[in-house]
Amino acid sequence: MKEKKWGRSLLLILGFTLYFIANEPQSAYAMHIMEGFLPVGWAIFWWAVFVPFFILGLRALSKITKETPELKLMLGLAGAFTFVLSALKIPSVTGSSSHPTGTGLGAVMFGPLPMSVLGSIVLLFQAVLLAHGGLTTLGANAFSMAVAGPIVGYAVYRTLMKSTGKQKLAIFTAAALADLSTYVVTSAQLALAFPAESGGIFASFSKFASIFAFTQIPLAISEGLLTVLIWNWLQSYSSHELSLLQRKMKGVRE
Q1: Please, which domain of life does this record's source organism belong to (predicted)?
Q2: Is the pLDDT of residue 230 over 60?
C-alpha cells in the first residue's frame, strides 16, 4: 500500500512538471551557455577543470551502489529532480538563461561528488534532446551546475546542521545557495571569456551577475521551498530509504 501511494505521488509530481515544461514558451536563448558560445580555449579549459570531479564522482557512485543497492531509487530521484527543474528555463543574458538547478537535493542526500555525475548526465541529455546547452560548453555548464553548486549546497547544509540543528532551514538554504552559486560561477565564466572593453573582467562579471539576479534570486527562493517540500514527501513515503541514506552519509563523514 505504501509503495502504491509513493508511486502515485511521484507520477503526480512528474506529470504536472512535464505539463509545465511542454507548455512553456520557447526562446532562442532558452539554454545554458549555448553551443559554440565560448571561445575554444575557454571551452577546453572548463572541460579540463570538470573531468577530475567527474572521475571522483564515478568512484563515489560506484561505492554507493555496491554497498547500499537499496539507494539506487533515491539516486534516480535526485537525477530526475535535477533534470526536471533545470529544464524549466527563463531567458536572461544573451547566450544563456536563468532556471532552477535542482542539484541541492542530491547534494544534501549524497554529497557533492555523485552530483558531478548525475548533473553532467542531465546536461548531456538536455544538450542532445532539448538543445538546452551544448556539447562543447558541457564542461563549463557541468562545472557551474554539477560541481560548484553541489559543493556550496553541501557545505552550507553541513554548516547549518552543526550550528543550528534545524534540518528544514539547512535544506532550504542549501538548495537556494546551490542555485545562486551556479549562476555566480556562470557569470564568472562569461566574464572571463568576454571581458568588457571598459572595466575588464570585473565590469563584465558585474553586468552578467546583475542581470541574472533579477530572475535567479526569486528562482533560488522557490527552489529552496520546493526542495523542502520534496524532503517532507520523502519522509512521508520513503522514510526507510531516507533513514538508511542518512545513516550512510553520517558514517561517511565520520
Answers
A1: Bacteria
A2: yes
Q: Which three cell numbers stand for residue 55?
A: 572521475
Contact between 66 and 240 (Cβ < 8 Å): no
- Convert the chain into a string of H (helix), E (strand) and C (coil): CHHHHHHHHHHHHHHHHHHHHHCCCCCCCCCCCCCCCCCHHHHHHHHHHHHHHHHHHHHHHHHHHHHCHHHHHHHHHHHHHHHHHHCCCEECCCCCEECCCCHHHHHHHHCHHHHHHHHHHHHHHHHHHCCCCCCCCHHHHHHHHHHHHHHHHHHHHHHHHHHCCCHHHHHHHHHHHHHHHHHHHHHHHHHHHCCECCCHHHHHHHHHHHHHHHHHHHHHHHHHHHHHHHHHHHHHHCHHHHHHHHHHHHHHHC
Q: Tell me how far apart the alpha carbons of residues 163 and 146 are, in angstroms, rounded to a whole number.
A: 26
Residues 92, 98 contacting (CB under 8 angstroms): yes
pLDDT in tens, 121-175: 999 998 888 777 889 999 999 999 999 999 999 999 999 999 999 999 999 999 9
pLDDT tens digits, residue range 213-228? 777 888 899 999 999 9
The whole-number pLDDT of residue 55 equals 97
What separation, in Å, do the N-terminal and C-terminal C-alpha atoms of the chain show?
Answer: 36
CA–CA separation, 248 and 254 (whole Å): 10
